[in-house]
Q: What sequence folds into this?
């Protein structure tokens, strides 16, 4: 029995270097973003995923502090709370090298390595959620631009909002231009874009034209009315 245990211990010791290599690679390439920092909020280690998602080289990211990346106004106070509680869960926004803010959900805790305290944060950036929010924001902004342009046209040309939007839409289709692009021109230019102005004039003309009245054929008059 003692021989079996000894053999197992030797095998475990032999595998330890392999375990370290495997774990290093697994953490470095995992889907999670991993950050290791000290009490002064300086990054000591980051995994490859964090670098790729944020757009930094490892050297660039290690030259930054936590608040250079976690840009929430509460980031510093949250970090201090984590130091006191020795662990923390939450969400912040991370700023990429290009300045884009990404939602980051994390779990952080204290670890001791070589007798020194460090702080490890592991979390995920939900890029699908970010894309969805970005799409919704874009759609909302487009709607705001369109409504603003409609209001400007209605005021300039004394038309209702429906007529204003119909002119924008017709001008877009006739000239192969985007609706949002035309609306921006309405907002930014002092004069109404000619392609829209033409559509508004056509609308005014069509409203001003009287309906053609065709004479209604009458049946033969009653002879009695003619004194016959």
A:
């Amino acid at each position: 029995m003692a021989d079996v245990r000894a053999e197992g211990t030797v095998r475990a010791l032999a595998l330890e270097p392999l375990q370290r290599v495997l774990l290093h690679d697994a953490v470095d390439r995992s889907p999670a973003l991993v950050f290791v920092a000290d009490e002064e909020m300086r990054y000591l280690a980051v995994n490859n995923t964090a670098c790729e998602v944020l757009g930094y080289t490892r050297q660039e990211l290690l030259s930054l502090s936590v608040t250079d990346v976690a840009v929430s106004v509460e980031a510093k106070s949250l970090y201090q709370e984590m130091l006191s509680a020795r662990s923390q869960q939450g969400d912040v926004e991370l700023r990429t090298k290009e300045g884009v803010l990404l939602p980051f959900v994390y779990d952080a805790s204290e670890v001791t390595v070589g007798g020194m305290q460090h702080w490890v944060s592991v979390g995920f950036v939900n890029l699908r959620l970010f894309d969805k929010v970005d799409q919704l924001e874009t759609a909302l902004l487009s709607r705001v631009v369109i409504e603003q342009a409609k209001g400007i046209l209605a005021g300039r040309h004394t038309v209702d909002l429906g007529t204003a939007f119909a002119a924008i839409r017709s001008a877009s289709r006739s000239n192969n231009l985007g609706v949002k692009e035309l609306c921006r021109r309405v907002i930014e230019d002092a004069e109404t874009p000619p392609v829209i102005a033409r559509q508004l004039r056509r609308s005014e003309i069509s409203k001003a034209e009287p309906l053609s009245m065709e004479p209604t054929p009458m049946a033969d008059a009653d002879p009695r009315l003619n004194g016959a």
The two ends are 139 Å apart (CA to CA). The chain has a mean pLDDT of 81.
